[in-house]
Amino acid sequence: MPAGTADLTFERGITFSASITLMNPNTTPFDLTGYTAKAQGRMPYDDASASWEASTDNGFITITPLTGVVDIVIPAATTATMGDWTDGVWDIVLTGASQVLRPLAGRFRVTGVVTQ
């Protein structure tokens, strides 16, 4: 099944948060017990290094297994270091013992804020 599409906008110096809920075809929550997650943004998509990364390893992604919820929170200190990126691509990959899922992918951009 191809990934769903979601475009992201980061505001430089502002905490970014998003929540994804994975459901089974019968509309029950997808059990994410034992899964890890990693999301990366690149400019362009085949760039050797990621422009940004959120993962269960770095603490920017948390998974609530029995509800199928994946929360992404990127702190303001991290978004403050993001450049003037206007046309990047991103996706999120969930890795379990028996399967790898890519539920979402899309474009991302970073905007500035007026208040200093």
Number of strands: 9
Largest sheet: 6 strands, mixed
Report helical residue fraction: under 10%
The appropriate CATH architecture is Sandwich
Please describe what this structure looks like.
The chain has 116 residues and is mainly beta. It has one helix spanning 76-79; strands spanning 4-5, 8-11, 16-21, 36-42, 52-55, 61-64, 69-74, 88-95, 100-111. The protein has one domain (4-109): Immunoglobulins (Immunoglobulin-like, Sandwich). 3% of the residues lie in helices and 46% in strands. A hairpin with a 4-residue loop joins strand 6 and strand 7 (69-74).
Nutshell version of this structure?
This protein is mainly beta. It has one helix spanning 76-79, and strands spanning 4-5, 8-11, 16-21, 36-42, 52-55, 61-64, 69-74, 88-95, 100-111.
Any chance you could write out the topology, listing elements then pairs?
Elements: E1 4-5, E2 8-11, E3 16-21, E4 36-42, E5 52-55, E6 61-64, E7 69-74, H1 76-79, E8 88-95, E9 100-111
Parallel strand pairs: 1-9, 2-9
Antiparallel strand pairs: 3-7, 4-5, 4-8, 6-7, 8-9
Task: For the structure shown, list the relevant keywords.
single chain; 116 residues; mainly beta; Immunoglobulin-like; 6-stranded mixed β-sheet; 1 helix; 9 strands; globular
